[in-house]
Amino acid sequence: MAEFGYGSLTIESVASRAQTGKASIYRRWPSKQELVMDALGCLMTGPLLRLHQSELSDDVTTREALAELMVNVGTVMAGPDGDAMRSVLGESLRDEAFSASFECDFFDPRKRALVDLLERGVERGEVRADAVDEVVAEMIAGTFIHRVLIRRKYPTRAEIDNMLDRFIMPAISPSSGA
Q1: 10 Å Cβ neighbour count for 120?
Q2: What is this structure's pTM?
Q3: 11-25, pLDDT tens digit by residue?
Q4: What span, in angstroms and rounded, lies between the C-alpha atoms of 18 and 118?
């Protein structure tokens, strides 16, 4: 998918590359869409695992967790996996059913993980309670994803710190007022 795009991806090409038969692929993934969604889930699981409260040690602040997430996602998007993601995103704009699946199976769980991180921040006194909702999570992720996925601008750690310190943390921290 990274090489040729979603539209050129076929079950036959996947089977050939995996050195197996198409039937083996279809036994696990009944459709190309399901195969792609599963692959994307695997692709983006690593950087997001650390968002789960059970995965974060007590000494990791909300800001540190967000910074690590942004660094990890930026690294993934800078490589061939980013090309695959851009291809899938393009397809989701053309195909309404695929878009619904992409949102439900890919974006929604990651948005929920980000909301969970913000809720953890509330418990720790680092985030205002009224700053925890899906819209805020989408705004945090959206700006960063637009930059790395659409514009292919991969921020340095200093730029990530700047985003966090000038915009994200002031918008969600208790000191910014309710």
Answers
A1: 20
A2: 0.77
A3: 998 999 999 999 999
A4: 40
How would you write the chain as a 3-class SS string?
A: CCCCCCCCCCHHHHHHHHCCCHHHHHHHCCCHHHHHHHHHHHHCHHHHHCCCHHHCCCCCCHHHHHHHHHHHHHHHHCCHHHHHHHHHHHHHHHCHHHHHHHHHHHHHHHHHHHHHHHHHHHHCCCCCHHHCCHHHHHHHHHHHHHHHHHCCCCCCHHHHHHHHHHHHHHHHCHHHCC
Domains of the chain from N-terminus onward: 31-172 (1.10.357.10)
Q: Which of the four pLDDT bands, split at 50, 70 and 90, describes residue 58?
A: confident
